[in-house]
Amino acid sequence: MNKLITVAIIDSGIYPHIDFKNRILSFKDFVAEKRFPYDDCGHGTHVSGIIAGDGTASHGRIKGICPYAGIISLKVLDKHGNGKIEDVINAADWILKHRTEFNIKVVNISFGTTTYGEQKDSASLEQAIERLWDSGISVVAAAGNDGPRNCSVAIPGTCKKIITVGSPDGKNFYSGRGPTPECIVKPELIVNGSYIKSCSNKGNSYSIKSGTSMSAPIVSGAIASILSKSDYSPKEIKMLLKKCCTKKALPDNLQGWGILNIPKFLNCYKSSYITAD
Fold first, then answer.
1. Whole domain around residue 197: which residue ranges?
2. What is the pLDDT of residue 169?
3. Is the pTM of this model over 0.90?
4. Catalytic machinery residues
5. Rama region for 205: left / alpha / beta (φ>0; ψ in -120 to 50; rest)
6. At 196, which CATH number?
């Protein structure tokens, strides 16, 4: 039987869609300090559905990658999808404080800021996100949609330690590309993020969205599924992902290790891929 793994989603909140049932374990609003789950933007609900929607409203047709995962929703984005770095840092600190209580093993961040912001604030954000990783939580961030120019990966996707996800992006060329300002290869991998159908914040319906914001939660959900079956450190998860990626005829600074083979990743075993140092 799968053990309960909780994914913390730092985003615009969550609408209590029927596909989440009673699995919204906690909601914290850093924008308006409201007590009950809501999402006046829709972005966070869509991301949450990709990770953990169980398909009830669609009779099983539209499901997330890990439909039994617990959900922590941390609202840092307003109805326009804008937010403050300070709120994201506070959300990261909240996760650290409550990670044991809720068994938080994965954090999803499907947004970012450009490298043109205040350097001190950006550094503080990256440090806060890397503290999550160092605590044993697998952190997944979107590469952002400022491609195709070089060095366009959004912060905190620029963090060296975490897993940054881009999209092959077809003819739109939106996916953020590396390297980072420190010449670190980013993103680590790519997953299709175009025209993804997931939970809407308008009743128990669904909507379609595109972007690396949709790519990242596919990976977060896959990691949650793996962790529900066996224990892995964030470093081991990274190694497993790398083993399950395939290079395509795409620029290296767009694809990193390549496109993730999700079925392969979901069926891999620790003994097959992890070698002791």
1. 6-267
2. 73
3. yes
4. 11, 43, 213
5. beta
6. 3.40.50.200
